[in-house]
């Protein structure tokens, strides 16, 4: 099983790249443009998150902890699971792009240019934080349900993408341009909610450890 976002969000974005769609007629929300611009200047950092998955077949949600390291040179590490033994790990550095899908599983090298992973790698590294690109493939709407927090709703335009991905909701703090929460509504009725903590700076030694096998 691929990491949940790898299997749901980024393939949907990649599939939409092959579809010719009309240019957006609605302006891109300013908060989204500010958030995307801020991603390019972020320092080396790590942020913890909590993932909650609600599946139609399960009575109780599945809750997991995760961490995400992102570095100015485009390298990153994304892992899901307990801090002592992560279940899924995705790493991209200057040499390779690789995934480990279980604690005892071997590392698998991925092709960064593979359409299934390209948008994922660029999104996590900060190289694809483009509001224009998202607006091209999604219907974008902004709402303010909480003071100081804007919710950006993305609904895919391509019909075949809608079968897999119904909606993305990004909650952005307008003050510090931080992504607070990401909610994914899947085509099968399942939902995935990721709630992010405050990011923390990391040292060069911590970066080396994060990118190691």
Automatic annotation (TrEMBL):
<dbReference type="Pfam" id="PF03548">
    <property type="entry name" value="LolA"/>
</dbReference>
<keyword id="KW-0732">Signal</keyword>
<dbReference type="InterPro" id="IPR004564">
    <property type="entry name" value="OM_lipoprot_carrier_LolA-like"/>
</dbReference>
<protein>
    <recommendedName>
        <fullName>Outer-membrane lipoprotein carrier protein</fullName>
    </recommendedName>
</protein>
<dbReference type="InterPro" id="IPR029046">
    <property type="entry name" value="LolA/LolB/LppX"/>
</dbReference>
